[in-house]
Amino acid sequence: MCDHRLYRRQMRYHVIKVITPKLKPAKQSHVDKIIALSYRLRDAHVIWQTAEKASLINNAYTTWKFCVLLHKVLRLGPKEVIRDSSDYFSLIQSSLIRWEKQNNLIYCCIAAYWKVLYGRIWFLCNYENFTNKLDCDLSHIDDYGENCRISLLSHIFAYQEHLNELLFTVLSALDVQNLNNSGDCRQTFFLAQALPSAVSDSDTLYGYAFLLVKNLRPQLSPDTSSDLCRRFCSLYTIVQEIFDQITFMQMNFGNLLDLPKFTTTLCLDMPKLTLQEPTAPSLMDC
Fold first, then answer.
1. CB-based contacts of 175: which residues, under 8 Å, 6+ apart?
2. What residues does 281 pair with on adjacent strands?
3. CA angle, corner 108, sides to 103 and 109, nearest 5?
4. Which parts of the sequence belong to the AP180 N-terminal homology (ANTH) domain (predicted)?
5. What is the distance between the alpha carbons of residues 162 and 167, in angstroms, rounded to a whole number?
């Protein structure tokens, strides 16, 4: 019990250090401590409760830092942080509405991030075969019936679309910042904190979407197959544009932004569309 209280105090200390309302990225050592403590506590409530007391809805810097932190904890922490975080859906929604109303690129980035985090928590609560990093044994997916796989694919599309919105919004904001703040990289590095986790999630989900569409295509009606193909191709086009922008950033910033690389599958394995009949495009095997 004493250890538990100590861990909670330590967690509060490190969370406060991470989400200070300053235009300065959090120290990785604090983030690492928070993730380690989440395994000791098996609890995310202290993270959320500490953030609630720190003007989470009112300060843009605090909110952005918390979103970045939460995404890392959701990816690298224990399963319990997913379920615990689902208790705060109303807080996510209220903060989302608050920032969505503001006509400002940074505020739009925050709103887009809240959509991603809400979608991530919801997805992992409903698809427990997926790990926190969105990995899944393919045999588990194969065990799903056709309707379940279609539902899974739809939810992957939905989460991927939120990720794409976040990535595009952040990249757009970075372009504006680079034009307006020549010589001042603080805002660039501050916003770019979202990119590593979002890029990794996007890359992983794209791979599952590709496999599901490819495997489902022969089993579906022409209309359903056509709809899935169109949505997948739209998704691919956006992801390809994001890939190009990320690649350009890597050329300019190198490893300074700690950006993961998309897998080569993302670029090379785009399924070709062929029209078997006017209303029934299908994905061809690569």
1. none
2. 275
3. 150
4. 15-243
5. 9
pTM equals 0.86
| pLDDT for residue 249 is more than 80 | no
Query: What phi and psi, each to the nearest 5 degrees, are found at residue 136?
Result: -155, 140
* Residues 75, 133: Cα–Cα separation, whole Å: 5
As a dihedral over the C-alpha atoms of residue 111, residue 194, residue 30, residue 2, rounded to 10 degrees, the angle is: 50
The arithmetic mean of pLDDT across residues 82-92, rounded, is 95
Contacts of 201 (CB under 8 A, 6+ apart): 75, 116, 120, 134, 159, 163
Q: Which uninterrupted H or E stretch holds 253?
A: helix 222-253
**Band of pLDDT at residue 127, cut at 50, 70 and 90:** very high
**DSSP character at residue 145:** -
